[in-house]
Amino acid sequence: MEKPMIPGLDLPVRNIYCIGRNYAQHAREMGSPIPKIPLVFLKPSGTICFDGDTIHLPPQSNDVHFEAEIVVAISKSGKNISHGSAMEHIGGYGVGIDFTARDIQAIAKRQGHPWSIAKGFDGFAPISEMIPSNKIEDPNNLDLKLFQNGFVKQHGNSSEMIFPIPNLINFLSQIFTLHPGDLIFTGTPEGVGPVKSGDKLEVLLNNGLQSLTVDIK
Question: How far is CA 160 from the centre of its chain?
């Protein structure tokens, strides 16, 4: 099976690294401590879908939540990447949604089990087209909004990240060799919430510089 291609970049999706609790207010709304080092989990490639797609709610869950995120696409391999050179490894920026089956995740947390099932259903990581990194003036000032049926539910900015993008690349590359096609979901701001069949979600980067729209079924 061919891997999905990253829109806007001539690269197939490789690994999908996700960062949990990277905005303090989101950690607080989830009743979780603010992490001292990045909290990392992975999603399978089958979670990737694209602008205009329909997300099918899995029958195994009755409580699927949206989590809007800024997504970074890696275009240059590296290991033990320094903070100072981290941005040289980025091919583009976009937005995505880290869908989470919250009820399944809650059970996993109570039992001390991984979150893989809660985060890993097909279609649980839609992404927008990527804007080339040289088109972004300040990656530390990227605005992020999610609309649910036309109403703003999440609004954050990359300046509010506990671990900024260069720190994430530095940290991840100390553990994993980063490769072209790797995606980093950089964490979600506060305001996450449930979806139901018939909902329309729209995520904007910098008030429409890039956007992602998906329907829920």
Answer: 15
127 close to 4: Cβ distance less than 8 angstroms: no
Half-sphere exposure of 211 (CA within 13 A, CB side): 11
Residue found by looking up tokens 């009755």 in the block: 62
Cβ–Cβ under 8 Å, residues 77 and 178: yes
Taking phi first (over 0 means left), then psi (-120 to 50 degrees means alpha), and beta for anything else, what does residue 150 get?
A: left
Instruction: Work out the mean pLDDT of the chain and round it to a whole number.
Output: 96
Which of 202, 215, 216 lies closest to 95 in space, CA to CA? 202
Please, is 53 exposed, middle or buried when counting C-beta atoms within 10 Å of its C-beta (0-12, 13-18, 19+)?
A: middle
Question: Is residue 100 pLDDT above 70, yes or no?
Answer: yes
**Using an 8 Å Cβ cutoff, are 141 and 161 in contact?**
no
- Residue 76: DSSP 8-state: S
CA 217, CA 209: separation in Å to the nearest integer? Answer: 27
How many Å apart are CA 45 and CA 16, to the nearest integer?
Answer: 7
CA quadruple 200, 148, 164, 90: dihedral, nearest 10: 20
Q: Tens of pLDDT along 161-175?
A: 999 999 999 999 999
Exposure string over 163-192, b if 16+ CB within 10 A, otherwise e: bbbbbbbbbbbeeeebebbbbbbbbbbbbb
What is the total residue count of the chain? Answer: 217
Which tokens belong to 154?
Answer: 């999440």
